[in-house]
Amino acid sequence: MKIMRKIVEIDQDLCNGCGQCLPNCAEGAMEIVDGKARLKADKLCDGLGACLGHCPMGALKVVERQAEDFDEAAVQAQTAHKPMPCGCPGSNILTFAQPAAGAGQSSDPQDSCLGHWPVKLRLVPPAAPFLRGAEVIIAADCAPVALADFNSRLLGQAVMIACPKFDDARPYLEKLVEMFRHAGIKKVTVLRMEVPCCSGLSSLVRQAAAVAGTGVPVEDLIVTRTGQTRPAEAEGLAEITA
Known about the structure:
Order of helices and strands: EEEEHEEEEEHEHEHEE
Helix content: 10-25%
CATH topology of the largest domain: Rossmann fold
CATH class of the largest domain: Alpha Beta
Number of domains: 2
Shape: globular
Number of helices: 4
């Protein structure tokens, strides 16, 4: 049944078929046909427009028109165990059941509490289904190595990891702003190492939250090299505003 709703529209005159929009559509709603990007089906597009900022030609926009209602079950069916449009099978979006919880932890310490894939911030699209309405942990790459209970903290959480020292922060800022604006994220916990260069991760997340303007709360935790945690506020770190 068709309803009046928001949906992505592709200007075929402007589209040059570069395909940069494809990896940034978590639902896999787009494809390249005869050198042009097209929607596979209306029901696969959620209308959030996370792909818009990745089109160098400005060929994408969100319009309101009669269209099939968004069908998340259809999206999951077509994306399950299929590679993302970037061509890397290891980057396909997966969600899977987390173990039964008890007092905030898995009932079995051998169970993994990870509920989705991928986990690298570089690979997670802003419209990834597992981000919608989620509480999110954004961790420095080294934090899971130092923190003994890192995996148990993932129960009921989405997680992304990045390195503030070696990764390019500019695309991360843009991506996080999109996530905060469109995914309805409830809370972000930053887990970063006590070394000075790692403070950039906190700055990045707080700056993105300020730019997005959604009021998402950010908890900033420092992980010591011996595996302890302490709140960054204890060290007098001020929030960054845009």
